[in-house]
Structure prediction request, 69 residues.
Amino acid sequence: MTAAHVGERLLTPGEVAALFRVDPKTVTRWATAGRIGSIRTPGGHRRFRESEVKTLLAELTTEATKANG
Prediction:
């Protein structure tokens, strides 16, 4: 983990799912497919860097706006 990521908020799959309005299982599939990076906790749970999630959300929102505009 780089210094830029130290202290960064980590989101649960449920929190990420709420932002994208999808099921948490979809978020897990995205992580498995490499579409979004994830970190594993010592207990084996996935967590997602807030900055990376917000960047992906902004990219997808921009793409959707361009496609519909």
User: Anything to note?
Assistant: The chain has a mean pLDDT of 88. The two ends are 39 Å apart (CA to CA). The CA atoms of residues 40 and 46 lie 5 Å apart.
